[in-house]
Specification:
By secondary structure, this protein is mainly β. It has 3 helices and 39 strands. The strands form 5 sheets. The protein has a 16-stranded antiparallel beta sheet that branches. Strands 5, 6, 7, 8, 9, 10, 11, 19, 20, 21, 22, 23, 24 and 25 form a 14-stranded antiparallel beta sheet that branches. A 4-stranded antiparallel beta sheet has the order 14-15-18-17, covered by helices on one side. The longest helix is centred in the middle third of the chain and has 13 residues.
Length: 626
């Protein structure tokens, strides 16, 4: 036994649990798949583990002494602080937002790179979601020339051709089976099948699973659904058949395959028999395309990050609707880009010919409305002006978006499990719900995040849980408040005028009001109650206009957003509606007057959300300058 354990030798990892089964990891309780334990780099812990309550007898006796107590309750939780880097919150944020990311087309497990034709190869992967003119960001390739921003000049189902000089690169991993791949059958509820709600049944393949194991497991999963869905699987033909008794002959059915990192693999997608003329017809799902995972380049990833428009195709119209300046196009159809109102984009590339001539027409902008040939904005980084673009091939960058959803079908609960290594053993937190997340920004400092989770149970043990333990792939440097906050603005709704100029400090917090549910016969929690999604914050700004005090006093509808950019990555945080509190001026001798304003966010009347977050996997270098 050691005399002590130093904190510097501890480590923290997390793994996503099976969705809908808090406390259960892939590979446990009959689930397929393998837990993937991702590494974190905490600066400190606020709490981690189980707070145990004991209850003792205290009878009336002459000796006036209690009896030995016994454990009667347990409250498990975890809290820690990390630095905010370019990518370390991408995988965790959905746990706090109770929603899925709305992601741009992304492909992993790239099968090879061919220098002679400048092509990225992946069978069946590029038939949908990509087009000539797309900007893609390639990362994780072993050969440096194959990484970075690329412009797509040719699209085929099996490859993307780019206008850059690529280098030959062969696959490095030969998967032996379907381990970790997740197969999901989706059936839209309709009047014929009578399911009531849409069906989504998944199976994560375990070590050694082949396509027959997957097919049979999906039959069991469908039968276990409520209501039960009758299906059969035929070995040899790889056909999963939805029975005619299900009346799903005309139903919308899709099947997706995600790799162990969670990315959709279109080339492995099973084929679904077309809808029949009658409801009472069986439907065949052929799993053959997923029967064998191809060799691939480990860590390689391609993600769509924007478009490069045709020469002179888009102009700026800032006069038709002055409150909503817009990009207008001749050929480009903005509705095909997968954008939504409330989403932030970045206009302009590094080369002068890839941006507008007027500097004010480039930069961050929040989308107000989208039609085929008009993309209008209600927030812009700069003041946009009319511009007739003669020949520039203007670049538009966009990324992934997540927001708290108001549609019940889009609200999802995702739980995670934590592992803290303490040299002589391990501490595990199971069934952990994202409860509170706070972004801290102080003058001349790095940006940090405080995260806290409410868990079902904790388990200290000497035995490590099984799974994969990849090396950390977090960006090495953190955002700071000196050079990386390229925009921060609070204003009245519908106004481009900021309420104040410079900000001294700011915090923004999410609170899901998660409460563990206790019951007789259960130590710890058996489930959790999820409360209101609350977004609050505090901002201290240098006072320069009495309008800020008036806005708080009059309970004006306000909005605040900020953008971070560093190392060609970026984030956009947007609170589209809040009311201010406090507002009492700080007046001290020999000091500048400051105004503290509390942020009390609410659902936006048109966007129907409280918080919008956009992650830009790639931004041009010009965006780093603010």
């Amino acid at each position: 036994m050691v005399n002590k354990v130093d904190a510097n030798f501890t480590g923290l990892r997390y793994a996503k649990e099976v969705q809908g089964q808090p406390g259960v990891l892939p590979g446990e309780e009959g689930n397929g798949g393998v837990a993937v334990w991702q590494e974190l780099e905490p600066n400190s812990y606020s709490d981690f583990g189980a707070e145990v309550t004991t209850t003792a007898r205290s009878p009336i006796t002459a000796g006036r002494q209690k009896k030995k107590g016994r454990v009667t309750d347990l409250d498990a939780s975890g809290g820690f602080q990390i630095d905010f880097t370019g990518n370390n919150m991408v995988d965790l944020l959905d746990t706090f937002m109770f929603a899925d990311w709305r992601s741009t087309p992304t492909r992993t497990q790239i099968e090879g790179v061919v220098a002679a034709t400048d092509r990225y190869m992946k069978t069946g992967a590029f038939g949908a979601g990509y087009a000539v003119g797309d900007l893609i960001f390639a990362s994780g390739f072993a050969v440096p020339a194959n990484n970075g921003l690329k412009s797509v000049v040719g699209v085929n189902a099996d490859y993307l051709t780019v206008g850059d000089g690529l280098a030959d690169e062969a696959a490095t991993v030969a998967p032996a089976d379907l381990t970790g791949y997740v197969f999901t059958v989706n059936i839209v509820a309709d009047a014929d099948n009578g399911y009531g709600t849409n069906v989504a049944v998944s199976y994560a393949a375990s070590v050694g699973d082949d396509i027959d194991d997957v097919g049979n497991a999906l039959v069991v999963a469908l039968a276990g659904h409520t209501p039960a869905i009758t299906a059969t699987y035929t070995v040899g033909t790889n056909v999963l058949e939805i029975a005619n008794s299900e009346n799903a002959g005309r139903s919308a059915i899709t099947v997706t395959v995600r790799d162990p990192q969670g990315y959709v693999q279109p080339g492995m997608a099973p084929t679904v028999e077309a809808a029949a003329g009658t409801a009472a017809s069986a439907r065949d799902i052929t799993l053959t395309p997923a029967a064998a995972a191809a060799d691939y380049i480990e860590f390689a990833k391609i993600q769509k990050v924007g478009i490069q428009t045709a020469a002179g195709d888009i102009d700026v119209d800032a006069t038709t609707d002055p409150a909503h300046p817009a990009l207008v196009s001749t050929a480009l159809d903005f509705t095909t880009l997968g954008l939504i109102p409330g989403q932030a984009i970045y206009i302009g590339g590094d080369a002068s010919l890839t941006r507008f001539g007027s500097a004010g027409n480039n930069g961050f902008a929040r989308i107000f409305a989208i039609t085929a040939n008009r993309l209008s904005f209600d927030k812009t980084q700069n003041t946009m002006v009319n511009e007739a673009n003669g020949a520039n091939t203007v670049r538009i960058f966009f990324g992934d978006l997540i927001k708290n959803e108001d549609d019940p079908d889009l609200i999802v609960t995702k739980t995670i499990q934590f592992e803290r290594k303490v040299v002589v053993g391990y501490e595990y937190l199971m069934g952990s719900h994202g409860n509170e997340l706070t972004i801290n920004m102080q003058t001349a400092d790095k940006i940090t995040l405080d995260l806290s989770f409410v868990s079902f149970d904790a388990d200290p043990t000497e035995v490590r849980k099984p799974g994969q333990f990849p090396s950390i792939r977090t960006a090495p440097e953190a955002f700071n408040t000196t050079s990386d906050v390229v925009r921060i603005r609070a204003s009245k709704q519908g106004s481009a005028s900021p309420l104040f100029g410079f900000v001294q400090e700011m915090s923004l917090a999410i609170n899901n009001n998660v409460e563990p549910l206790k019951a007789i016969g259960v130590l710890g929690a058996f489930d959790a109650s999820i409360g209101d999604f609350e977004v609050t914050g505090d901002i201290t700004a240098y006072f320069n206009d009495i309008e800020a005090v008036q806005a708080v006093r009059n309970s004006e509808s306000l909005s605040i957003d900020f953008a971070l950019a560093f190392d060609n990555q970026g984030w956009w945080f947007d609170v589209p509606l809040f009311t201010g509190s406090n507002g009492i001026l700080n007046v001290e001798k020999d000091q500048a007057i400051t105004i503290p304003v509390g942020i009390e966010a609410a659902e936006h009347q048109d966007l129907h959300t409280t918080l919008i977050v956009c992650w830009f996997p790639y931004l041009p270098s010009v965006a780093m300058a603010g």
